[in-house]
Write a structure and sequence with these properties.
Two copies of one chain form a homodimer. Chain A is mainly alpha-helical. Chain A has a domain of 94 residues: Arc Repressor Mutant, subunit A. In chain A, 53% of the residues lie in helices and 5% in strands. The first copy, chain A, contains six helices and two strands. A two-stranded antiparallel ribbon of chain A has the order 1-2. In chain A, strand 1 and strand 2 form a beta hairpin. In chain A, helix 1 packs across helix 4, helix 1 packs across helix 6 and helix 4 crosses helix 5. Chains A and B meet through helix 1, helix 2, helix 5 and helix 6 of A and helix 1, helix 2, helix 5 and helix 6 of B. The structure holds a DNA duplex.
Amino acid sequence: MPTSTRFAVAVHILTALAVSDGKPLRSEDIAYSANTGAVVIRGLLSRLSDAGLTRSQLGAGGGSLLAKPARKIRLLDVYAAVEDTELFSLHRTPPCESCAVGGNILEAIQPVLDRARKALEAELAKATVADVAAEVARLGKFSIPLVW
Amino acid sequence: MPTSTRFAVAVHILTALAVSDGKPLRSEDIAYSANTGAVVIRGLLSRLSDAGLTRSQLGAGGGSLLAKPARKIRLLDVYAAVEDTELFSLHRTPPCESCAVGGNILEAIQPVLDRARKALEAELAKATVADVAAEVARLGKFSIPLVW
DNA sequence: TAGTGTGTAATAGTGATGGTTACACACAAA
DNA sequence: TTTGTGTGTAACCATCACTATTACACACTA
């Protein structure tokens, strides 16, 4: 049960903003880096902004900025901001209520699925955008802030 | 991404087989319990059989059986048998190679995503089909084997 | 005031998914 | 051996989420 590409691109966006370190980035520039369209980026920025992770400056010289320090933004926050669907999908049509298994299977597996989901979320809570930005800087052999 | 319901239905199938405890179940009967089509069930049984989790008896009185004890079948085995896609999707089109962030973001986030995936898998490895079957029996107030 | 960039609606193409029909084949029961 | 049952798989279809793209109103800066 896959996530959309939104999570990966959203992390990309936030990492770019972290690397930019206070200088507003245009959606078009982020789109170039992520190899997608500027509207896609703005759609994600809209979600990230709703979640309180980014903010925008309108007008010439404007763009997007982190709304709080990169080290305060956990990947879990990003995940929650852009992923809509449940990690585990259940039956498309609910199983037979009156069946021995069908009538109880959902309730029976829910605790296990919850534990699995929470384990995943706990890992995503351990890493921050600052961590990712630092790793990108290390791999790319540059320092933050990066002058574009 | 439309997330698949295969995992939930596959667990349903195996739980039914565990509850049946050696008596072959027809795909049609499982389909009734899961509220889907028999061909959908047979498609999943085909994957589960390939993974060594079930086997089938052809002919009259035939159906499907567990290929090994329910307590030896971990939900992780089921997950691996029926889920095709990666848990985390990355960019649809690879990001800009020559960009500071785009050129390094994939490598930078991969370790985090791997840890998250492994944490999820570790939880799914802790639960078995026997556990789910026992929980279903408890909730449904019946004992295994259940005579249909 | 002119120009820049955001925010969002609308639309379209794509791909995975699940539902369904059809049918060949293996096996059991008689 | 024959008959009937149930599996295994291919083919086709409708649906839906997702991403890309166009279009345009609006806010803000220089």
